[in-house]
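We treat protein structure as text, and this decision shapes the records that our systems exchange. We quote a single record here, exactly as it is kept in our systems:
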Amino acid sequence: MSHGSELNNRPALNVVVYSSPGPADGDIERHAARFVEAKSVVPLGGQLGYLVLVPTDFDRLWGGVESGDAIGAAANVLKFLDPDAQQFAWRTDLFVYGWVGDDNTDHGRILLMQVVPREAPPRHRPSVN
């Protein structure tokens, strides 16, 4: 994630990604919300999404994040979500894509993707003489 002032912004979107089987269907939203609260690197906020991938796809995603491909990994996750979430893909001019990984004893490795709006550049006002 960027080290600029974007770290003070609230995310537009948080997506928690699990390897199959992930939490039980009735518990997944609650677990994802708790995971975001525990692992967020920016102030809390934004929409919450979650996704369970087959282990091979999850391992490929983890590898992409681990190798530093935050943007490509984000696009790969966003394509699985609804069209409203897909608007965030490849928008590096407007958003910073942050990833946090964790090894959870109950559910194995878990990834949190946070899509954070970039700080708008200051507007320069023309000087009036």
Observations:
- Residues 28-39 form the longest helix (12 residues).
- The chain is about 30% helix and 25% strand.
- Residues 16 and 35 are 8 Å apart (CA to CA).
- Strands lie at 13-19, 47-53, 95-104, 108-117.
